[in-house]
Design brief:
The complex is a heterotrimer of chains A (about 400), B (about 160) and C (about 250). Chain A is mainly α and about 400 residues long. Helices cover about 70% and strands about 5% of the residues of chain A. Chain A is built from 13 helices and three strands; from the N terminus they run βααααααααααααβαβ. Chain A has a two-stranded antiparallel sheet. Chain C folds into two domains: about 45 residues, no CATH class; about 200 residues, Alpha-Beta Plaits (2-Layer Sandwich), CATH 3.30.70.20. Chain C has seven helices and twelve strands. Classes of the chains: A mainly alpha (about 400), B mainly alpha (about 160), C alpha+beta (about 250). Chains B and C meet through helix 2 and helix 3 of B and helix 1, helix 5, helix 6 and helix 7 of C.
């Protein structure tokens, strides 16, 4: 293979870059304004309540955090598992991972009841709490991926690339295990409390992260007027197909288990049959758009050479993934907890036994979208000031 | 002659300009709001200088003892500060300690420190809590169970 | 006992001048202060592991349509609704149940169950959710960052998040925007040695006496007597949390 040269990404039309950055900047500004509005007034101005305590911001945050660790996979395949086709993409993979995590954490942080107490979260640890572990895992991820990028970019420390790559790979598995365990470790609610949550989140991260990666990679190369070879894209495309199928398998296993356990029939009925918006999101959003459509686009011979099909499949995976997390986070809370088995609640002072209402509000959405905008802005700036992208990715 | 008069006047204005902030600082350094219980007392629960310098640390220690270990009636208590330092208006109504020019705000505004205490703690003495029996108003005399045990046997063994 | 805001007594002067240093309340360096607890003769000893505070609720005595305990709790802790039921704080709530098979109707009140192994404490990242040595589960609002993970973890839906800025809170329960809160088992009363909760008082005043509060570790206590002579249940006993709140006739 000929030598690979990396170069800062410059747009063919310079004004495009600044226009794009300005757009992202204004989205971020709107999101920060929305966060201020929510914090200033208190959370009653959002759709969240004492019944649905985690809302749309958490869906965005978890989506981005999960995707972040998955975006690092391409680098891991290159340096840990020795895939020469993936190696030149390692730098961008690391950059995207950092960007996505930063965006997700911004959303998560700004939705706290007391974001001003970040310092408390950083200094007081309850090591039995998976949340506290996640604080360490998230901050550690920045550090390890930072060092990983350094070993990729600086030839003098290049010999450490492989061990650091290993460390980063294990760290990212731990990170997504931690994120999945936020739900897996909740004994109270029927939708959660399942060990499969952790591996399912890991495999979800593979899928979303790679979809983000493919989508932004193709965009960047169009943007920078550079070439990507068909063979390389075909590799990425096949990998995405495998990940989408794997997510589907985990979803199947999770739901089959619940369908077997009588105690969980209520939540299954809610998600699969009569949960209204959550049922629609599951079947149309997660299964149809998020799984079947991309599998068709990726594997149909009709689209074998189509780049647009690959981009469309990636976008579909991301939309489906968003709905999947929405159904997990919000659907799981909306379904009432069964405090009194065998009994029907006929009166309650606190909505016992009722499906909780949740309608997201504009500020919540604005904050979440600002998270995505922050991720993209960091990636755009990073790609412009660092030598991240190879000059050409011709086969 | 005329010019020296002007310069004298200027000098006086200059001096006044310099002295006024200093006087303000002096005034503020002796700050206890009128019409508060504290105004009639010689010193706080510790010497004034000590309180002025260390009240936040005293309170910070006390808060963990009280919230986490249930130790009440501490020498340094935020509720105690408010009881003593909140002033009353002409109608005898308590004024918030974080109101403009009031005890807490006067200094914290001057040094641009915004204490988080009052996001949770009330800023006037609580007149509704029953004195002598509840909360921080611990009183040794009230330490006995009130009420009577209920006879539960009678209606369950029917 | 002298009010701490009364005229300074010579006692206190001696105390400040003489025993302050020895007692350890002096400033060693800026920001470093030893505990002042030992120096203060007015301070209570604090929570003790010799007790475990709990409650028994007799569902047969819980009267239909009655909200005396809820009102008393709200008054005691200064909980004021904003007219927004979905976000207003609820520390104690009545629940009416009907058995799906038999049609038997129960009424009871739910609140924080003060578990021996509270899931809210396990999940709290900053140790803001904690269990006192006497079994009372509380939120330390000085540390709560408002992540609401405890609300996700609580099997009893016992917790509320403060959704708006508050003022004029009760001195019994300082509380504010952005923190999570729940039933404190009237811990301010326990600490003051008044071994009665506001809900219990109210229930008794209404003539129902459905609530008994007391020390689960004291064999001679009323609550232990009731629990020994009656069959009681824990809600969601399958989780093995060993709740401090038990129910009769459920």
């Amino acid at each position: 293979m000929s030598k690979m040269y990396y170069r800062e990404l410059r747009c063919g039309v310079p004004v495009r870059f600044w226009m794009g950055l300005t757009l992202l900047g204004s989205i971020i500004a709107i999101g920060l304004g929305a966060a201020y509005y929510m914090e200033h007034n208190g959370h009653w101005v959002t759709g969240m309540s004492n019944q649905v305590v985690w809302g749309l911001p958490h869906v965005f945050a978890i989506f981005l955090i999960v995707a972040a660790s998955g975006a690092l996979n391409v680098a891991s395949i290159g340096s840990v598992f020795g895939g020469p086709m993936y190696k030149p993409l390692g730098r961008y993979s690391g950059l995207l991972a950092i960007g996505l995590l930063a965006g997700g954490l911004m959303v998560l942080l700004l939705d706290l009841g007391r974001p001003d107490r970040l310092i408390v979260a950083m200094t007081q640890y309850n090591f039995k709490s998976i949340f506290a572990w996640n604080v360490i895992l998230y901050t550690g991820f920045f550090a390890i991926v930072g060092v990983y990028l350094w070993t990729m970019m600086d030839r003098s420390v290049g010999k450490y690339n492989r061990p650091v790559g290993f460390a980063a790979f294990f760290w990212r598995i731990a990170l997504t295990t931690g994120t999945g365990s936020i739900f897996g470790f909740l004994v109270a609610r029927e939708a959660y409390d399942a060990a499969i949550m952790a591996p399912m989140f890991v495999i979800m991260s593979f899928s979303y992260g790679l979809a983000f990666f493919i989508m932004t990679l193709i965009t960047a190369y169009i943007w920078g007027d550079r070439e990507i070879g068909d063979l390389r894209l075909a590799r990425l495309k096949n990998l995405l197909g495998v990940f989408v199928g794997a997510v589907l398998y985990f979803v199947l296993a999770y739901n089959l288990t619940n369908l077997y356990i009588t105690q969980h029939h209520g939540i299954e009925r809610f998600i699969l049959l009569d949960g209204g918006v959550y049922t629609q999101m599951f079947w149309i959003g997660q299964i149809l758009v998020g799984s079947i459509l991309p599998l068709f686009l990726l594997y149909s011979p009709a689209f074998e050479k189509s780049r647009w099909a690959i981009v469309a499949a990636s976008v579909a995976v991301l939309i489906g993934g968003f709905f999947q997390i929405y159904v997990i986070v919000i659907g799981g809370q909306a379904y009432p907890m069964n405090l009194f088995p065998g009994k029907e609640v006929i009166e309650s002072g606190f909505f016992d036994g009722q499906v909780a209402d949740y309608a997201p509000t504009f500020p919540e959405a604005a904050l979440g979208i600002a998270g995505i905008a922050l991720s993209l802005a960091m990636v755009a700036v990073g790609a412009r000031v660092f030598k991240v992208f190879p000059e050409t990715l011709e086969d | 002659m005329r010019s020296s008069l002007i310069s004298n006047r200027r000098l006086i204005i200059l001096l006044a300009g310099l002295v006024t902030p200093a006087m303000q600082v002096l005034g503020e350094s002796a700050y206890v709001t009128e019409n508060s219980k504290a105004a009639s007392l010689e010193s706080c629960v510790a010497p004034t200088d000590d309180m002025r310098r260390n009240h936040m640390d005293f309170l910070r220690h006390g808060r963990d003892d009280t919230v986490r270990d249930g130790v009440r009636g501490l020498e340094y208590s935020l509720a105690g500060c408010i009881d003593c330092h909140a002033s009353t208006d002409a109608a005898g109504k308590a004024v918030s300690v974080v109101g403009k020019g009031e005890f807490c705000q006067a200094c914290h505004g001057y040094v641009a420190v915004s204490p988080a205490c009052f996001q949770c703690h009330r800023t006037t003495p609580d007149s509704t809590a029953e004195r002598g029996s509840l909360g921080y108003r611990f009183d040794a005399d009230s330490r006995h169970p009130i009420g009577r045990p209920v006879d539960r046997e009678t209606d369950h063994e029917q | 006992m002298s009010n701490k805001c009364g005229p300074p007594s010579t006692d206190r002067r001696r105390f400040i001048g003489g025993t302050l240093a020895a007692a350890g309340a002096m400033t060693l360096a800026p920001g470093v202060i030893l505990h002042a607890v030992a120096a203060n003769d007015k301070a209570t000893a604090g929570a003790s592991g010799e007790h475990r505070w709990g409650m028994v609720i007799d569902t047969d005595r819980c009267a239909d349509g009655c909200s005396a305990c809820v009102d008393a709790c709200n008054k005691e802790h200064g909980l004021e609704g904003q007219g927004r039921p979905a976000t207003d704080a609820v520390w104690i709530r009545p629940v009416k149940l009907k058995d799906r098979q038999t049609g038997h109707v129960n009424r009871l009140v739910m609140m924080c169950q003060h578990c021996e192994h509270p899931p809210c404490v396990d999940v709290c990242p900053t140790n803001a959710s904690f269990k006192r040595v006497d079994g009372v589960v509380l939120v330390d609002r000085h540390r709560c960052i408002g992540c609401r993970y405890c609300m996700m973890a609580c099997p009893y839906k016992a917790r509320s998040f403060v959704h708006e800025a508050l003022s004029n809170q009760s001195v019994n329960a300082p509380r504010g925007k952005g923190c999570v809160e729940s039933c404190t088992l009237c811990v301010h009363r326990i600490d003051a040695g008044v071994m009665r909760t506001a809900c219990q008082d109210a229930c008794e005043k209404e003539g129902h006496a459905a609530i008994v509060f007391g020390d689960l570790k004291d064999p001679k206590s009323e609550i232990r007597r009731v629990l020994k002579t009656h069959d009681s249940v824990q809600i969601r006993a399958d989780l093995e949390l060993n709740t401090g709140v038990r129910y009769l006739n459920l």
